[in-house]
Amino acid sequence: MVRTQIQLPDQLYREVQRVARDQEWSIAEVIRRGAESVIRAYPALKQKSPSGWKLPAPITSRMLVHDSESLRDLVHEDSDAVR
């Protein structure tokens, strides 16, 4: 087991003391259980690949409309259909 030192705000320390007293645990046990709860709430992320992150391949697509006026008209038609 590793020994460590931490600093707690006064109010948090009083609450830790209260829980320890109510549960008949040591203060260290309250801190350990709190740390275990946090670890369960934040599971480890997947390991990074040895080669690192790579930019994904670009999405290939074709616009069916080539001029801005037609595109504007299609957008307006689509928003009118939603209403």
What does this structure look like?
The chain has 83 residues and is an all-alpha fold. It has a domain at 10-41. It is 53% helix and 0% strand. The chain contains three helices and no strands. The chain has helices at 10-23, 27-41, 68-82.
Key attributes of the depicted protein:
single chain; 83 residues; mainly alpha; 3 helices; 53% helix; 0% strand
Write the layout of secondary structure elements.
Layout: H1 10-23, H2 27-41, H3 68-82
Total number of β-strand segments? 0
Q: What series of H and E elements makes up the topology? A: HHH
Roughly how much helix do the residues carry, as a percent range? Answer: 40-55%
Q: For the terminal residues, how far apart are their CA atoms?
A: 64 Å
Helix-strand category: mainly alpha
Over the alpha carbons, how many angstroms does the gyration radius reach?
29 Å
What is the average per-residue confidence, as pLDDT, rounded to a whole number?
85
